[in-house]
Design goal:
The protein has helices at residues 12-16, 68-78, 146-166, 190-204, 221-230, 243-251, 279-282, 290-299, and strands at residues 26-32, 35-41, 47-53, 56-63, 88-93, 101-105, 117-118, 126-127, 171-176, 181-187, 212-215, 234-237, 255-261, 264-269, 305-307. The protein has 309 residues and is an alpha+beta fold.
Length: 309
Amino acid sequence: MSKNGTHRSTNNQQLLTPLVAHSEPVVYLECQGDEVICADKPMVIESAWPLIVNSQHWLTVLCTPTKLDYFTLGFLYNEGLITVPEGVLKLQIGQEGEDVIRVELQDRDLRLPQRRTLTSGCGGGITFVDLAAAREPLNSSLRVTVGQISSLMKRLRTIIADDRHRIGGFHAAALSDGHQLSIINTDIGRHNTLDKVAGECLTRNIPMQESILLTTGRISTEMLGKAARMQTPVVVTLNSPTNLAVELANQWNITLIGYARGTKMHVYSGWQRITPPDKRQRQSHRPLPEHRLQDFCATKKAPSLTYTP
């Protein structure tokens, strides 16, 4: 394993195993009612990494120091500085014991964005996505079922469960083709997990279009902006989206699903991509409200739907 924690093995199971950088066990008091016991557990690591682009200190990111090559490529891609991995001529991470990321771009004259929109998320993620800029709605033929979404989120939660219990304090994101999880990444910052996914897709030549993006973190406008840049038509979170994220999802034709826990979830936008169960399933499950979907398709208005099969 390299200094930045990137897996070099091509074994698929290893690539899917989330890597969580953690400290040595930290002692703490565990209190429950009148009982107080001494315990210890590892803690997730947070570190600051100045990002030097074309010899200029652009910004400093706070992140978990794993897969930093994927994170850097994904961040540059999601912020529009590169469109392909070849846009980066040189990438150096932690050279000579320094916690510094140095990037040399193919475009040496590129002017780095200066207008900053600080995210509302944890982990100090910083984005320059201009929320006022118009984006073209995503054109996708992808269709998914409630069962698919439930199964994929269950798989993600199962994979990270041990580290959640043993370490905690991190977010996870995954990309799926609808049948299996292709990529899983973790970080203290929910924004950073999406950048790592994008960077790994670019590096491993995994298409982001016609895919499902899953995350454990809240979907804010910055998170949805990254998903739109990645052109993933279906975005699923274990938690909640913000109201503005829902508005943007409708505008950009992204299916936004929140509170995907077990067989229950909320579909806030892009409801036309949700395929109802077949007749055999309907014999034992309450059917999806097809008439409501048809009404929404006709009016182009999409209130949130709560599906409980």
